[in-house]
């Protein structure tokens, strides 16, 4: 973070760690080549490292960081801007982060996500992950949405995912996953499940369907 104009912040400043984490992310994912300049490493407060982004439904949300009233980063959205490489472990310093959306980039390694156990929304779809679906995802007990669509994840769905008792949306479509889907019996909070485009065997059980009173999409 030597290029950061505010790098002389005194140790103990409440935003020092989150500023450092975001700077590491910028360097680790090729920030100088991002498709949009979001102000990362600028003298502006890190809560202002963003730009308005208009979605297909014409709603507008910040692309980059979003913060709460205490200037803590609660959301990090970096979609379709050309991230490469790995998600850095330093993101664990964003203690108030609830949403991490890094869809439609060129990321290849997600190990840096492992310690973000407070995150509620994690979407990493349409990247270049070619790996076994990590068992540590099951330790992210706060997750409500997990989106890993259109990568090349392999193996079966880890049994550890049954520990995600608050999960309502599971997007695993268009990967290279195998095995049966009996694990879904232990995830009654699910409301949206996308599984197509894999090599699953067997059938979704009647127990799964009977328990999912709120299921809207399958």
Automatic annotation (TrEMBL):
InterPro entries assigned: DNA_repair-toleration, Leu-rich_rpt, LRR_dom_sf
Name of the protein: Leucine-rich repeat-containing N-terminal plant-type domain-containing protein
Assigned keywords, A-Z: Signal
Pfam families: LRR_8
PANTHER family: DNA DAMAGE-REPAIR/TOLERATION PROTEIN DRT100, L DOMAIN-LIKE PROTEIN
UniProt KW Signal keyword: yes
